Amino acid sequence: MKTKDMLKDETIVGSPVKHLVVLTCVLFFFWILLSGKFDLKFLTYGVLTAVISAWICVPLLLLPNAKGTKKYFIFDVPLVKYAVYWLWLLNEVVKANIDVVKATVKSEMVINPRVIRFRIKMDNPMAHATLANSITLTPGTVTLNVTEDGLYEIHALTDGAAEGLLEGGMQKRIADLFGEPFDYAVVEEGEEQ
Predict the structure, then answer these.
(1) Which end of the chain is less congested by CB atoms within 10 angstroms, N or C?
(2) Topology of domain 79-186, CATH
(3) What does the alpha-carbon distance between residue 139 and residue 53 come to, in Å, rounded to a whole number?
């Protein structure tokens, strides 16, 4: 898809012009960060490079949903909410680290490895990727599989890790972050997929 065609595409969630401007700003900020020069010549090169790169690349940063009916821009997330989420996740990583260390340092390890399955319906593929990666970043849990219909299979090392997944706190935060409805259910062993 060409950028000029993208500007008329009605399957794109949000404003294509806004996505183009956001990508231009991100690229220009990255240019400034790398160059460290604030002379007019370098700023002009930076703006031109950012605009041309964004014009070429913005169609590549559109991800279709599973049904192919909508396209989502990968940077279309509220930045303040995104930063707050990552601070929350950092706290969860620290707590999970402590849980795993307590479970494994004792002479008799208190681990209970098992596979947790749950289904969460979200249309935005970036929401699914963020959730799967957040789970894997948290010590004691690894995302094994995610299906197109939102079935997650997660390996949990400890009871604390399993309980956190079953409560759905992280799933709710991701759904809120990406503006998705919170449609979450635990899938019990032997249940229909």
Answers:
(1) C
(2) Alpha-Beta Plaits (3.30.70)
(3) 37
